Amino acid sequence: MRFVLRRRKLGQLMVFSTVAATIANFVEKAVAETQVKKTTPMLATSTDSETVKVTLQVNGTPHNLQIEPRVTLLDALREYIGLIGTKKGCDHGQCGACTVLVDGQRINSCLTFAIMHTDAKITTIEGLKQGNNLHPMQAAFLSRDAFQCGYCTPGQICSAVGLVNEGHAKSDADIRELMSGNICRCGAYPNIVAAVRDVLEGKKDAAV
């Protein structure tokens, strides 16, 4: 009986010691973090001195921006200019939702800085429409029902227009390969290919 009681007391002492050590370590860590916060200066916030003036020619209109040099073209379009048709998907250049046209060439706007395109002609999905008429590629996507949720559609259409500009697609296989950088998670690929084929085969003025 005494042996059992001694074992129980020993166990209680061990538990108490462990708890006490844990509390002591916690307190010591908290004190150390407090000292670090007191002695470490706060990071400087963004000021006008850290930004630059940038003028972007978007859809035929100049936009004067005061932005940090690290602002991507995608963020400049969406957050500073308000053209939210260009979508932010993966933000790593893997899905193609942010595709726009720069001097007629399709690019992933999330992978490039806005400041790099001050002398370029930038076209977004909002700028494809010609007056009151849809761009032929937009009309083809509607005609072929080449979308479901529609999130990837602006990038798909801009990429398709760029594909037409490049002049390399001669077959459905070419279209699929050259559009492979634009992901449609709904799986509307057959209709997308059909829409692009329609423009390549029959419609005019499909280039920007």
UniProtKB/TrEMBL annotation:
For this entry, the protein name equals 2Fe-2S iron-sulfur cluster binding domain-containing protein
Which superkingdom is the protein from? Bacteria
Q: Which organism is it from?
A: Nostoc cf. edaphicum LEGE 07299
- Quote the CDD domains the UniProt record gives: fer2
Fetch the Pfam families from UniProt: Fer2, Fer2_2
Going by the UniProt record, its keywords in alphabetical order are: Iron, Metal-binding, Oxidoreductase, Signal
Where does the 2Fe-2S ferredoxin-type domain start and stop, copy by copy?
Answer: 52-128
Specify the signal sequence span.
1-20
UniProt KW Repeat keyword: no
Flavoprotein listed as a keyword: no
